[in-house]
Amino acid sequence: MSLPLIALFIAAFAFGTTEFVIAGVLPQVAQGLGVSVPSAGYLVSGYACGIAIGGPLLALATKSLPRKTLLLGLAVAFTLGQAACALAPDFTSMLLLRIAVAVAHGAYFGVAMVVAVGLVREDQRGMAVAVILSGLTVSNVIGVPAGTAIGNIWGWRATFWVMGALGVAATLAMAALLPRTTGYQAKAASLASEVRVLARQQVWTSLILMLMLMLGQFCLFTYITPTLLEVTGLDENLVPWVLLLNGVGATLGVFLGGKLSDWKLMPSLITMLALQAVTLAVIYAVSPYPVPMVVAIIVWGGLNFAIGTPIQTRILSWTADASGLAASLIPSGFNIGIALAASLGAAMLNAGYGYRSLPVVGAFAMLVAVIVAVLSHLWERRSDISPPVPAAAE
């Protein structure tokens, strides 16, 4: 792994940790700010909305800035945001600060993806995307448990101070290791060009695949703890270990997806989508049985992130000539999909279908994704058009 990619990974790890660690310290935050735990949950949904809406808008507003300058600015905003969260006097200010950090988060991942693929050869793009994505998975395996432990020992404000220190480390790493020229286009594309590339079938079909992937993942994952407790019958103390193994599987899956993206992107993607449909069907079948359920959950976690890598690589490849808006829509699309999946899962549970029905929804979503991917791949082969060549580097 090259040093510039390591710097981008550190910042991705920081953003991923601060997004997810709030769940680990939510009761302490609620108590400290004088609100109920359900009300404190808006700190999670508010962050997702900040990524989904604010990220693309900030990316468009800053598309003329040099990429390294923008990345450093976003890292500084992250660092200051963590310090401000640690000092937040009330819930309203905490919510607004979280949303502001989320806007920087959404813009960061869009820009970092473009920069990452610009730093490597064409046949290494998949692994470059995988490195950035692994920042999110590793944050779940290491950052979130560590941040939660810090909050339990020294209080939730200490968690955000540590996040601020991590932001300083990310800023310094990018300042020292990122080259001045990032491989990004020299002249910022016009807004019309940015919007026009979204009409390419490889782009909008990939966004559909992204939505289906989130339905396959978060309809179940949002409610994975009660599913494991009530359907599988696991002891409550074992659930964190299952989630840890799921995170390990996700981290391995990211790099597997990167390798396959650089080998045969669409055949690999179609195969993994089909395997995920089968895996979700298996989860439905074995959910009452602890050992096979745990194994299936690990495989499911690995495939979720293995699939995400080629989807994002494909979007970046087919928007290389005007990638700003499209790249910023990647984290936005994921978070919209997460919100829709969680809402659909809640609606099904409220309708009385039960936790065991959730992987069935995911399996059908994956079958839809297989059909869309196959049709898109055939359409692409018939048209015999190659991905665009990026404009000259800075």
UniProtKB/TrEMBL annotation:
Its main location: membrane. Pfam families: MFS_1 (PF07690). Residues 4-380 form the Major facilitator superfamily (MFS) profile domain. It is a multi-pass membrane protein. The chain crosses the membrane at residues 42-62, 69-89, 95-120, 127-146, 158-178, 203-226, 238-257, 269-287, 293-313, 325-348, 360-379. Keywords: Cell membrane, Membrane, Transmembrane, Transmembrane helix. CDD domains: MFS_NepI_like. Gene3D superfamilies: MFS general substrate transporter like domains. It comes from the Bacteria. The keyword Transmembrane helix applies. It is found in: Cell membrane. The keyword Cell membrane applies. This is MFS transporter. The lineage of its organism: Bacteria, Pseudomonadati, Pseudomonadota, Alphaproteobacteria, Hyphomicrobiales.
